[in-house]
What does this fold into?
Amino acid sequence: MKTQNIKINNPFNPQFGRTPDVFLGRDNVVNEFVSGLDDINSMNRATIIAGVRGSGKTAILSDVKSLIVDKNRIVIDTTIFDGFLTDIIDQAIKQSAKNILKKIPYLTSLSALSFGVGITPQNATHIPGFKSIITDIAEENKNKQIVFILDEVHNKSHEMREFIATYQHLVRDGFDVAILMAGTPDSVFDILNDKVLTFFRSAYRVYLKNIDIRLVAYDYNVIFQNEVLAHEAAEASYGYPYLIQLVGYYLYKDRHRDLQRTILQSKIELFRNVHELIFYGLSDGDKRFLNAMNNGENIVSFSDIVVKMGVAKNYASSYRRRLLDSGLIEEVGYGKLRFALPYMGEFLLEISRMI
Ligand SMILES: Nc1ncnc2c1ncn2[C@@H]1O[C@H](COP(=O)(O)OP(=O)(O)OP(=O)(O)O)[C@@H](O)[C@H]1O
Ligand SMILES: [Mg+2]
It folds into this structure.
């Protein structure tokens, strides 16, 4: 029998950093920010999203960007890395009217290339700072709205401080600007507690939760046309965005044959790309707390953890706080905790057997 060579594209894509085709449950956060762009007083105009690895922060930013790119807007989309301010200037110049270089002659000497690699132009006697450059560019684009989309925000960068000071200055001067940022819960926590970056405290905050399982099951069923399978697969994903893609991807690839095998494949990828990376960044105290918490129950009481750790309550409390702030554990009722990431308990057991 001749094998048919039909190429069917898998609708799932378990890659980090882009909006997947099957993208669900984030309409609120996306719409709130996008509709806020029409209202200069909207509290969503400065929004900060916090979420653990794989919760879908970058997917939201990309989705927002795709919805708002427009000739009446300058949409600047970057990640916090050394040199991101020059990236912002490059993008702003590229989206300005062609005559911007004539209007602001000093920009010519700060060509994209010299900016990109951080070379100071030799014949430039005076190079304005970031704030002046962006203000001059904004002045020349008065008819346009400027939206900044910043991924992986943290407070460890000097440039971040300069950027925020500039942004606040633009707001004070009445420019039509908005900002959408995303970072891990611990980075966002550090930013919100930063004595200098007080601006963030008034920003609208969104803490990403898992997607409602019913939505996941619904979308799986549209693709797999099998309600029972869709429901079981959705439960196995816990609504955690990266797992929604992994489970969907392997189930599709496997032609919906074996859910257990799909879950196993998904967990291998999940542990490698999320749990391990997080685990190796934890302190010994954090790991001790997590291991003490791992008693096979879904919900564990803090007092049991203290007993199991065999330490003073205050000591255990400081680790509880740290792990809550980093989004790895969640409070469910008074004194009750659970792991925020799916299959964390299983992972901890596996890793303790290995080391
Ligand atoms: N709302 C969603 N519905 C379904 N899948 C999603 C959703 N959001 C993100 N995903 C998928 O989850 C995975 C992780 O998404 P993303 O890269 O946006 O996470 P992140 O929070 O930015 O992670 P990191 O902290 O590593 O940057 C990707 O495979 C993406 O396709
Ligand atoms: Mg990301």
In short: Residues 16-17, 57-58, 151 surround magnesium ion (ligand 2) (CB under 6 Å). Residues 1-6, 112-124 have pLDDT under 50 and may be disordered. Residues 259-280 form the longest helix (22 residues).
